[in-house]
Amino acid sequence: MTSTPGTTPVPDLEQRLDGVLGRIESAAERAGRDPREILVLLATKTREPGEIAAAVRAVHERGWRVAVGENRAQEIAKHEDPALAALESELGVPRHFIGRLQRNKARDVVDFASVIHGVDRDGIIDALARRAELAGTQRDVLVQVNTSGEESKGGFVPSADVLADAVTRIRATGVLRPVGLMTIGAHTSEESAVRSSLRLLRTLRDELADPQIVELSMGMSGDLEIAVEEGASIVRPGSAVFGPREG
Ligand SMILES: *Cc1c(COP(=O)(O)O)cnc(C)c1O
Questions:
Q1: Domain boundaries, the chain
Q2: What are the Alanine racemase N-terminal domain coordinates in residue numbering (predicted)?
Q3: Which atom, in ligand 1's list, is nearest to the CA of 239?
Q4: 212 by DSSP, 3-state: which?
Q5: Dihedral pair phi/psi, residue 137, rounded to 5°
Q6: 49: pLDDT confidence band, cut at 50, 70 and 90?
């Protein structure tokens, strides 16, 4: 604990991280899953490169699979930092993009992220594919599904037919490889609503029955346990690791 006289001690990064990994581990055990199969994708939002690198190293040292999740294309340039570059080359830690995708940012996203979550409409598939072709590269993508029906959220409607069409379109690009589904759980304190939104993602994946669509990216700081119980293969904790965001 780091503490200043007269204030409540605040847990430091490693303590918060151990708390998060402990939550994932217990949920996995309850669900009869091997916790180390789960990829811990740290949602970095506006954090500083040094802080991100410290968290990634700590997760890696504890024997977990870890990746860096960038939320904002504007942050990418800032994250072209030696501390983060070293993580990729030394530890083989990949970088994923998990933010809202914009067509005019397709270039930045394709250039730095090996996995792109949140592919949520046809226009973005075309924009990413064009950039990947120009760059002579291929990228793994996850199709975002709006499992809660909340208007503020992006994503395809939760229909296996609609998703199958999106997967076909992605695959037809030849440069984007669909590997799974992604969602943001229902924004409510009602556990049953959160659980149904996350369970729906798994049901849709199973209905698709596509041997390449295996990943389920779901679970943030507030709903990690539910996500793991419902089959998440990638969880995306942010504030529970880095502490509450300022401003
Ligand atoms: C911010 C964000 C997260 C992390 O959210 P926390 O509540 O801070 O854990 C995960 N996924 C996406 C897509 C996000 O935008």
A1: 13-99+108-240
A2: 98-244
A3: 8
A4: coil
A5: -135, 170
A6: confident
